Amino acid sequence: QVPLVESGGGLVQPGGSLRLSCTASGITFPIYNMGWYRQAPEKQREMVATISIARITNYTDSVKGRFFISRDNVAKTLYLEMNSLKPEDTAVYYCNARRTDEFWGQGTQVTVSS
Question: Residue 36, Cβ neighbours under 10 Å: how many?
């Protein structure tokens, strides 16, 4: 299987910042649309941010202006910079790669709590 490996999750206080990373292997990274999704307890998985092959970005309304998605095609890495974190951002965050096929990482836990 083609792995997507997330890192950077952890416990952070409200108002803090965190940067998530997702490193891909086994795919031609530049031709995949990439995204971050999250799932909170008892909630459905939701899209947080996506970045296309052309680096067009989309964000769910609740994170606009706070989160920033980017990609490094040489390093084959996807990033999510998370600022002004709120308790409602607490979730497992998943990395996604999509073309005609689709891959998911195992997720990384982000907990925002004082």
Answer: 26
SS3 88: helix
* pLDDT (0 to 100) of residue 1: 61
d(CA 22, CA 80): 9
**Residue 86: φ, ψ to 5°:** -120, 155
Cα separation, 68 vs 62, in Å, equals 12
The whole-angstrom separation of Cα 57 and Cα 50 is 6
44: three-class secondary structure by DSSP: coil
Partnered with residue 79 across adjacent β-strands are 21, 70
pLDDT tens for 12-47 read: 999 999 999 999 999 999 999 999 999 999 999 999
